[in-house]
Design goal:
Layout (H helix, E strand, L loop, with lengths): L1 H14 L7 H28 L9 H24 L12 H25 L5 H34 L6 E5 L3 H13 L3 E6 L9 E2 L2 E2 L7 H8 L3 E4 L6 H11 L5 E4 L3 H5 L9 E2 L16 H7 L3 E5 L4 H11 L5 E6 L2 H14 L5 E5 L5 H11 L3 E4 L6 H6 L1 H21 L4 E7 L8 H21 L15 H7 L2 H6 L3 E7 L1 E3 L5 H10 L4 E3 L5 E2 L1 E3 H14 L5 E4 L5 E2 H11 L10 E3 L19 E3 L5 E4 L6 H16 L5 H8 L6 H11 L8
Parallel strand pairs: 1-2, 1-5, 5-6, 8-9, 8-11, 9-10, 11-12, 12-13, 13-18, 14-17, 15-20
Antiparallel strand pairs: 3-4, 6-7, 16-19, 18-22, 21-22
Helix pairs in contact: 2-3, 2-5, 3-4, 4-5, 11-20, 13-15, 15-16, 15-22, 16-23, 19-21, 22-23
Length: 679
């Protein structure tokens, strides 16, 4: 549309080369000249018609009054028309509003003439005023609406000549009507029908386009009209209804787009330009989670915050949202310099006054951690650093233990020693009844957090052992003074949630790359099910859960209903304009090492307690033998750093709920049902 307007502007500059005069001003001048002429003609015809259209029969006194009055009246009418804004409307879009203003202006000027002329110039025939006023209205209105009528006639004439795509509009309201007009005016596409759930609109027409029925008529009419595109134009559409409609639309081979939301209508921005492709988030079937972040602001404002793994997908979003809540200082610690540099550039551009420190370091390195904590003294730690890729960790199990479990232990110990107020562990639903080393390592992280909290509340923080792979006795005495352990009050909590859309390692980016290459799209199993949440949603709830902490909790985020990964893959293919299994193949590659069909949010032994937020729950912690657990962690660390082949057996002894994936999946397939019904 922008190109069309630019072309029109260039044409007008060439057609009307008037320096300093805009095109609309030139048109207004022509319109004013026409109105003056039309008013002269209207009242002459009225006077001429009064005497049987015989010019010689018009009495001289009447004609004299006409000639003396008409020019003054025409100029007066032109001034009134200016006042009623009849010279600066865009007449190609003329509607009821413009017609009302024309009628009001014409009636006003006609009445004024009928009152003034008899008192100042002399009596004229009554039909002169009546027919003259009516002809004035017809001539003034006709020229203004003739362009719109011409466009409408051309549109209906071209409907049979359309060579573009055939479009179905879902939503026969104001937004749908606006899109119909714009599609017809600005594109070569043809709108063939409307869908609307309001029965009162069925079997009726909007600008000549039929409303064929409700959502149950989508599939029959896609076939009937050979529809190529479906546009959803319902601003007030609930997430559940949107999912139902999208589920139906995804059974077609049509390209689907939608109006972003109600605010577009409120701002008058209903146009093709704001239509967007249907996103995977739209298929989740729930309203976006919008948490009240007031408590988060009060919690973070003015504090020094450390985010480990701050360059990753979750860690970087944590940094973005923390930066919005005015912390005193934000420290980002990450081992991967490229990601760390990217988030640093972004935050420095968006928050130039933020006291930001981006550091390179590993959570495995106790000395580096102590250096960071000693220098910056963070009050709150969000621990997002972790290896998260399930199949890779199955191949390298010792690395999962080193980075996830031991890295968490060392970071937690550094936080405790240096007086950190709160430590928030980012956990995962894969820690529930883990079937892989990655999930088991995250369950170990949760158990570490519970152990630290237990010892601190019992006043026995000094009994928490140090885990080192490189230290001397002198370092221990200097870096870990006993008095720090007697006064520590750090609150340790974990927040557990499922898969996040678009995160590093998530299936969505992988699917998109495969589609761009022309396929195939690989799905491990047709029945595999996952919980999904967007990164901003998950992070906002993580931060909110952190404000509820009292120590030792495992917060569980409500992820909604689970969804089949196969459904996501097929939806993405259709959104890209292809047909699944026809133009883009779907291949089932089999479950990967350590992968299970169904993720769970809670262990069987755990129950749920409510919080202030209905989307955040607390899992009752499973009792563990803290002394035995902490003692075994040292052995686990040594096994990991010596790359012991049997490390899975050691993990299984420490995490009783850890079961190999092959046994769990076999049991799930034999039962024939998922923990929850997936859509």
């Amino acid at each position: 549309m922008t190109d069309n307007r630019r072309t029109q502007d260039d044409f007008m500059k060439k057609a009307y080369p008037l320096p300093g005069v805009k095109h609309w001003q030139f048109v207004a001048f022509l319109m004013t000249s026409y109105d003056i002429f039309a008013i002269h003609a209207a009242y002459f015809i009225a006077l001429w018609g009064r005497f049987d259209f015989l010019y010689s029969q018009i009495p001289a006194p009447y004609f004299s009054i006409y000639t003396r009055v008409i020019t003054v009246y025409a100029l007066f009418a032109a001034v009134v028309f200016w006042f009623f804004r009849l010279y600066n409307s865009v007449w190609r879009f003329a509607s009821y509003n413009e017609l009302t203003r024309i009628v009001e202006a014409s009636v006003l000027t006609s009445v004024v003439q009928a009152l003034v002329v008899p008192t100042m110039f002399g009596r004229m025939p009554l039909t002169y005023y009546l027919w003259g006023g009516m002809l004035q209205l017809v001539l003034v209105t006709g020229v203004r609406f003739s362009y719109r009528f011409f466009l409408l006639a051309s549109r209906y004439r071209r409907r049979g000549e359309k060579t573009g795509d055939k479009v179905m509009l879902i939503g026969a309201g104001a937004a749908g009507q606006t899109l119909l007009r714009e599609l017809t005016r600005e594109t070569n596409d043809e709108v063939v029908c409307f869908i609307d759930d309001n029965p009162n609109k069925w079997n009726r027409y909007i600008d000549g386009t039929p409303v064929v029925g409700g959502r149950e008529e989508i599939l029959p009419n896609v076939a009937k009209y050979n529809v190529d595109k479906i546009f959803i134009a319902i601003p007030r559409l609930s997430a559940e209804s949107k999912r139902e409609i999208l589920t139906i639309c995804n059974e077609t081979n049509c390209r689907i787009k939608q109006l972003p939301g109600l605010f577009q209508v409120a701002l008058g921005q209903v146009s093709l330009g704001v239509m967007k492709d249907v996103s995977v988030e739209d298929l989740l079937g729930r309203e976006p989670i919008k948490a009240d972040m007031t408590g988060v602001f009060n919690f973070i404002n003015g504090k020094t915050i450390l985010v480990t793994g701050g360059g990753g997908s979750i860690g970087s979003e944590l940094c973005r949202q923390i930066a919005q809540h005015d912390p005193k200082t934000l420290i980002i610690l990450d081992i991967y310099e490229n990601n760390a540099y990217d988030i640093e550039l972004e935050l420095r551009e968006k928050f130039p006054h933020l006291d930001l420190h981006v550091l390179i370091g590993s959570v495995r390195d106790s000395r580096r951690l102590f250096e960071v904590f000693r220098k910056y003294r963070p009050e709150v730690v969000y621990h997002a650093a972790a290896h998260k890729h399930v199949p890779l960790m199955e191949v390298s199990p010792c690395e999962a233990i080193k980075n996830n479990a031991i890295g968490t232990y060392k970071t937690a110990y550094a936080a405790m020693i240096h007086g950190c107020k709160r430590f928030v562990l980012i956990s995962t639903d894969k820690a529930v009844n883990p079937t892989n080393v990655m999930g088991a390592s995250k369950r170990l992280c949760e158990m570490i957090i519970q152990s630290f909290d237990s010892r601190i509340k019992a006043g026995k923080a000094a009994e928490i052992p140090q885990l080192f792979t490189h230290f001397a006795a002198k370092d221990a005495e200097e870096n870990f003074p006993p008095e720090a352990l007697r006064t520590t009050s750090t609150e340790f909590v974990a927040v557990r949630f499922g898969n996040v859309l678009g995160s590093n390692g998530s299936v969505i980016p992988v699917f998109k790359k495969q589609i761009l290459k022309g396929g195939p799209v690989t799905v491990t199993h047709p029945d595999i099910i996952r919980y999904f949440m967007t990164i901003p949603e998950a992070v906002s709830l993580v931060m909110l859960a952190g404000t509820y902490a009292k120590g030792g909790e495992i917060f569980v985020l409500d992820m909604g209903s689970p969804m089949k990964v196969d459904t996501l893959a097929r939806s993405l293919i259709k959104q890209s304009g292809f047909r699944p299994d026809v133009e883009i193949k779907i291949e089932y590659t089999g479950l990967r090492p350590g992968e299970k069909l169904y993720e769970e949010k809670l262990m069987a032994e755990e129950g749920l307690m409510k919080t202030e937020n209905e989307l955040i729950h607390i899992g009752r912690p499973i009792p563990i033998d803290v002394d035995s657990f902490l003692s075994n962690l040292g052995k686990l660390m040594n096994a990991a750093y010596t790359n012991t082949p049997g490390i899975r057996d050691i993990v299984a002894e420490m995490v009783p709920t850890y079961k190999p994936a092959d046994k769990v999946n076999a049991r799930a397939l034999n039962s024939g049902a998922a923990p929850e019904q997936a859509k």
